[in-house]
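Regression test case RT-17, inverse folding.

Input:
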């Protein structure tokens, strides 16, 4: 699970670091390749992140990653069919708490990035496509590990909305968990559960 966590963190970092305006016209695989190199270099050059400095890692994740993820779509997909039943206020709470959960869950994993390199598979897409999958592998010690991105084209450029680590899509994993919570306790019950998990994660990091 630890290995899966740092891979997901790397994936989110690689696809979502703040990009210049020209990135709007940049192909999704070219974007990921370029930014992956930048993020890996930044991590390896920062002793604080390598040492597990939570505040430093949280800052990287929150300021560089989240603004470039379609987080509304990611949250709605994770909540599934219940999303339409939620009020606007509940949707906002779900999005805020899910964001906090992901940042806390995957931030510490960035410190696990050491000597890994990323290779990319050829893109299978058409110029008019608005949704694509960028497929890659992380190479280091042991066997290569699958690492994929579901991305969509938006007016502000390509954005990530789901992640695949070791053959498991992140949104699908949370959708199963969230459906169980909502089935047992309703939407407010899921929100309360997320709040509690985030408080617990914050306490552990203190």
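Golden output:
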């Amino acid at each position: 699970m630890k290995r899966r966590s740092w891979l997901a963190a790397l994936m989110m970092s690689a696809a979502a670091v703040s990009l210049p305006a020209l990135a709007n016209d940049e192909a999704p695989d070219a974007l990921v390749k370029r930014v992956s190199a930048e993020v890996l270099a930044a991590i390896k050059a920062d002793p604080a992140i390598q040492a597990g400095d939570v505040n430093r890692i949280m800052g990287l994740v929150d300021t560089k990653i989240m603004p470039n993820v379609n987080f509304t779509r990611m949250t709605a997909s994770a909540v599934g069919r219940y999303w339409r039943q939620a009020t606007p206020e509940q949707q906002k709470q779900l999005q805020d708490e899910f964001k906090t959960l992901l940042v806390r869950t995957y931030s510490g994993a960035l410190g696990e990035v050491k000597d890994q390199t990323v290779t990319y598979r050829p893109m299978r897409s058409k110029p008019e496509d608005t949704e694509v999958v960028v497929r890659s592998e992380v190479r280091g010690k042991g066997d290569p590990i699958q690492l994929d991105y579901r991305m969509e084209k938006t007016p502000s450029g390509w954005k990530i909305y789901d992640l695949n680590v070791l053959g498991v899509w992140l949104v699908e994993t949370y959708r199963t968990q969230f459906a169980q919570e909502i089935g047992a306790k309703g939407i407010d019950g899921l929100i309360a559960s997320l709040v509690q998990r985030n408080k617990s994660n914050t306490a552990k990091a203190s």
